[in-house]
Amino acid sequence: xxxxxxxxxxxxxxxxxxxxxxxxxxxxxxxxxxxxxxxxxxxxxxxxxxxxxxxxxxxxxxxxxxxxxxxxxxxxxxxxxxxxxxxxxxxxxxxxxxxxxxxxxxxxxxxxxxxxxxxxxxxxxxxxxxxxxxxxxxxxxxxxxxxxxxxxxxxxxxxxxxxxxxxxxxxxxxxxxxxxxxxxxxxxxxxxxxxxxxxxxxxxxxxxxxxxxxxxxxxxxxxxxxxxxxxxxxxxxxxxxxxxxxxxxxxxxxxxxxxxxxxxxxxxxxxxxxxxxxxxxxxxxxxxxxxxxxxxxxxxxxxxxxxxxxxxxxxxxxxxxxxxxxxxxxxxxxxxxxxxxxxxxxxxxxxxxxxxxxxxxxxxxx
Length: 366
Description:
- This protein is mainly alpha-helical.
- The protein has helices spanning 3-36, 45-63, 66-81, 88-108, 111-127, 137-155, 158-174, 179-199, 202-218, 226-244, 247-263, 271-289, 292-307, 316-334, 337-351, 358-365.
- The longest helix is centred in the first third of the chain and has 34 residues, at 3-36.
- It starts with a helix and ends with a helix.
């Protein structure tokens, strides 16, 4: 993709977001007003509740305000209550509820939210057929796979990861060539990355990269969340670089990492992940080239990533370990005690993070 085209994408998305933010605030207020005037037995109540949680969800994804997420969860609960038991309408609302629980898990680290999300997705996916028109099974399967992969990372049950790969592949197979295709491909690539970390099989990593490149090709070039597809490819190429030490892989990863950060709104819920990835890439570039400015830039982005990460977030420990390693590298360059103290402090914090994945605690203790 050419630089000029990327600049146009950046400008178009910025204009869209400015307009969308104003529209969302107004839309949410209108939804509240309309629902307040809707009889609880009205056939229009379900649709109006759906409009509200959808607007709240979009604003949460844009700004990361947990109050919007909590309200969306309460609204979708109301939507579930007004549907008939075992109906497709209820399955659709349950799927939405499971998605929100997964989002809240990422904010709070609550294993109860993750377990409930997985239970609901499994029930819904079993209930609906591949050719069901009312509720897209491919979307349900893709989201189910991601939640399973998160539980694998949290608990380490290999069966969860294997099932995640299976349902992720099925989601991509069932997906039509629309906006959902890119997301399903990205989800599968993320799951395959975890399988690579488990097996160290380079063929699995190559498949993950190939799948993610297809996701980049499939995404609409003015899609507000295009940064996520760039970010996922950047993380995979960074992983490949650690295996091959091929500078071209790292250079492409760094270019995509910077692009992802540039395209992500300041208060977006996923900005911390993009900042962390860029910090990892700059740290790797510093080790490869010996240029100290890369390490200082990596520490700066690493701190921004931590500042944007909730204390209870499951990924916080991993980001603390990364930052501790950077300060350790800086200490070997400067021999200044404050850098060693900073390294130790970050690693100690990682060890005691409440929602840390086991692999992060192991890295912190080494």
